[in-house]
Design brief:
Elements: E1 2-4, H1 9-12, E2 28-35, E3 45-52, E4 55-60, H2 70-73, E5 77-80, H3 83-91, E6 102-104, H4 105-113, H5 122-130, H6 137-150
Parallel strand pairs: 1-4, 2-5, 5-6
Antiparallel strand pairs: 2-3, 3-4
């Protein structure tokens, strides 16, 4: 895992040891955001995760402006799980991808499981489709640290 930050000390406790600046992206980029809340107007992105040719990259948006990375995503095929949530936060920063370049795996999973009662969140979808378990405990820990720092 790669990390782009100007505040390395904050992430050492999470076990991240690789710090990266500019890395080459793939033509198809998986994208996820971590935010301080659910309201794109009042809340903000504190972490942007994207796939690169060298593996996942976490961008610490508290120390590296997200605007440095958004132009690099323009024109690429972008894969989100729940783009309806992530895109308004990115659009607030002036990023407007062409609709044909946006893939939403949550919508796809909803269509595939319609009427079955299956949950379509990322964790349940990953477990069902590829047998991967995605724990939320680290994400919640990071969000608590960010929220505490903001008060």
């Amino acid at each position: 895992m790669l990390l782009h930050t100007r505040n390395k000390d904050r992430f050492i406790l999470l076990g991240v040891t690789s710090f990266a600046g500019d890395v080459p992206l793939k033509e198809v980029v998986e994208v996820d955001t971590e935010t301080t809340g659910f309201d794109f107007i009042d809340d903000r992105v504190f972490s942007l995760q994207i796939s690169t040719k060298h593996g996942p990259l976490i961008i610490d948006c508290d120390s590296v402006p997200i605007e440095e990375w958004l132009p690099k995503l323009q024109g690429r095929k972008l894969i989100f799980h729940n783009a309806k949530f992530d895109l308004p936060f990115l659009m607030k920063k002036g990023f407007f991808p062409h609709p044909r370049n946006v893939v939403d795996t949550m919508i796809q999973e909803t269509c595939l499981t319609l009427g079955t009662g299956y949950k379509v969140n990322l964790g349940d979808t990953a477990k069902r489709r590829v047998g991967a378990y995605i724990p939320k405990d680290r994400q919640k820990t990071i969000k608590m640290c960010i929220r505490d720092r903001m008060t």
